[in-house]
Amino acid sequence: MSTVSIPGAVVHYTTHGAGPGLVLVHGTGADSVANFGHLVDRFTDRHTVITPDYAGSGGTEDDGGAITLDALIEQVAAVIRDNGGEPVDLGGFSLGAVVAAGVAAKHPELVHRLVLIAGWQDSTDPRHQLTFKLWRDLADLDESSYARLITLLLFTPGFVSRMGVEALAEFVAGTKCSDGTNRQIDLGLGIDISDLTPKIQAPTLVVGCTHDQLVPVGHSRELHESIEGSTYAEIDSGHLVVMERPDELVDLVRGFLHPEN
């Protein structure tokens, strides 16, 4: 585990493998291990895979106040610079996709190629507000209901059924609310990067999840439309595609990063 200190935060991150940098940014309520730990080895044959934890997650320390998108953007940018500052391939999942898009728009010199998975451009959609506010309220009211709701929102019905009783119970029991997660959900209620996405210059792959109930796939399609020249692909999955359809996701990302193969 490595760290980089910037004003307001000490950011923890890990590195694996060798080669050009591939930075993977996790989503709300998770950390880099939870979202990408099982996928890192799928990229280390060609990349140094760098997985930061931003404020509210993992070992990263901040002042405990409201999390801003600008703060997360600068935390990820600092990790890239701490690893030499050369342009990296940058991927983000869910809120991590929003952060990654912000890094590419604000620091184009740091990003070679960009992958945005199950992300969104702004939070004004009434359904988005309803979903995230319920998610946030349950974190304060009933941790068990919080865990059951987010499990239903993260996966397709068939995937949940196929998990089986014991695995499903284990997943729900492991889904905890924390102050950091709550602060990240609060951020997710106020996202608007519509002024940033047209500035993205890096070749970009946008990945939508057809059956996403947390961030419906229309948001990914909107992201694609806002980024000039971007490529769009869709996976038959719920929101947590990194767990539900990991093989398809890895093949898609590797195909984008290495089109010559």
From TrEMBL:
Any GO molecular function: hydrolase activity
The protein's UniProt keywords, in alphabetical order, are: Hydrolase
* Pfam families given in the database record: Abhydrolase_1 (PF00561)
Gene3D superfamilies, sorted: alpha/beta hydrolase
* AB hydrolase-1 domain sequence ranges: 22-246
Enumerate the PANTHER family for this protein: MONOACYLGLYCEROL LIPASE, MONOACYLGLYCEROL LIPASE ABHD6
Task: Report what the protein is called.
Answer: Alpha/beta fold hydrolase
